[in-house]
């Protein structure tokens, strides 16, 4: 069935290329050119791919800022150790990061071990073999989506709001794109549930976290009718669109059954 496809197709505002996230991407996309692992994000086909591309870009921008600060503090300025650490901390204040226990991950394209250097063992980044990370780091990159999965999407690297999470899936909402995203433990997208279709003249967009709970429950239970009802009853999708989707599904099933005869 193409339920999610039709929800996206008929969404009221669905052009992700007219959003600030896309303009940010265009400004910095060249940073992805030298990373073999992430070149597939150079031309995002939808907003989720755009968000993933921007996560990598923010990671690279963090790395560049921290590399510059560490080199200046420990080499160029010849600061004392305490002064150098204080200066680096000042450069980290406004950077996005992932909460990882008592540590913070600022450069998630790298492993947790390497991120410990960026978090507190700064001096080691100027020593062999870690000094190669300053310029030649492509071979040291990891799949950050799989490595950090849910914690990555529930961090300052995105604008997502976490509305549900268990051991298998995480469901997040994005206010700009007005959609729910079901993410699996590998950090990949299982489903996008686009809300507020073009048949809704003045949709209410407040109290989303509470209103989407029945939708998520129906999704988890694979309850198609309950899913549709939850979308309608909570003012998230119009009854007109749901009826249109049901008619399309009925025609699809009828056509499929005719072919079997």
Describe the secondary-structure layout.
Elements: H1 3-9, H2 20-28, H3 47-76, H4 81-92, E1 98-100, E2 103-105, H5 112-119, H6 144-153, E3 161-165, E4 169-174, E5 179-184, E6 189-194, H7 208-211, H8 213-220, H9 224-233, H10 239-260
Antiparallel strand pairs: 1-2, 3-4, 4-5, 5-6
List keywords for this structure.
261 residues; four-stranded antiparallel beta sheet; elongated
Protein architecture, described:
The chain is α+β, with helices and mostly antiparallel strands. Helix content is 46%, strand content 11%. The protein is built from ten helices and six strands; from the N terminus they run H-H-H-H-E-E-H-H-E-E-E-E-H-H-H-H. The strands form two sheets. It has a four-stranded antiparallel β-sheet. Strands 1-2 form a two-stranded antiparallel ribbon. Strand 1 and strand 2 form a beta hairpin. Helix 2 crosses helix 3 and helix 3 packs antiparallel against helix 4. The radius of gyration is 22 Å and the shape is elongated. The model has no long low-confidence stretch (mean pLDDT 93).
With helices defined by DSSP (H or I, 4 residues minimum), what is the helix count? 10
Strand content: 5-15%
Query: Helix share of residues?
Result: 40-55%
Q: What is the global morphology? A: elongated
The biggest beta sheet reads: 4 strands, antiparallel
Query: Low-confidence runs (pLDDT<50, min 5 residues)?
Result: none
The assigned structural class equals alpha+beta
Q: How far is it from the N-terminal to the C-terminal residue, by CA?
A: 21 Å
* Major β-sheet strand ordering: 3-4-5-6
N-to-C order of helices and strands? HHHHEEHHEEEEHHHH
Mean of all residue-level pLDDT scores? 93
Q: How many E strands?
A: 6
Instruction: Write down the Rg.
Output: 22 Å
């Amino acid at each position: 069935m193409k339920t999610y496809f039709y929800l996206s197709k008929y969404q009221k505002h669905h052009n992700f290329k007219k959003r600030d996230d896309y303009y940010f991407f265009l400004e910095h996309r060249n940073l992805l050119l030298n990373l073999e692992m992430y070149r597939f994000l150079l031309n995002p086909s939808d907003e989720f791919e755009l968000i993933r591309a921007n996560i990598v870009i923010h990671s690279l921008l963090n790395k560049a800022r921290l590399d510059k600060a560490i080199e200046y503090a420990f080499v160029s300025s010849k600061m004392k150790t305490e002064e150098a650490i204080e200066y680096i901390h000042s450069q980290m204040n406004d950077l996005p990061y992932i909460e990882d226990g008592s540590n913070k991950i600022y450069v998630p394209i790298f492993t947790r071990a390497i991120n410990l250097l960026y978090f507190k063992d700064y001096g080691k980044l100027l020593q062999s073999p870690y000094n190669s990370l300053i310029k030649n780091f492509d071979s040291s990159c990891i799949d950050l989506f799989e490595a950090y999965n849910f914690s990555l999407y529930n961090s300052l690297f995105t604008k997502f709001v976490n509305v549900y999470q268990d051991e298998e899936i995480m469901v997040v909402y994005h206010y700009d794109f007005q959609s729910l995203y079901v993410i699996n433990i590998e950090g990949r997208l299982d489903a996008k549930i686009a809300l507020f279709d073009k048949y809704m003249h003045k949709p209410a967009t407040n109290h989303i976290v509470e209103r989407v709970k029945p939708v998520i429950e129906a999704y988890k239970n694979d309850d198609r009718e309950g899913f549709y009802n939850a979308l309608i009853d909570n003012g998230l999708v119009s009854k007109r669109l749901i009826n249109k989707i049901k008619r399309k599904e009925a025609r699809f099933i009828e056509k499929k059954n005719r072919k079997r005869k």
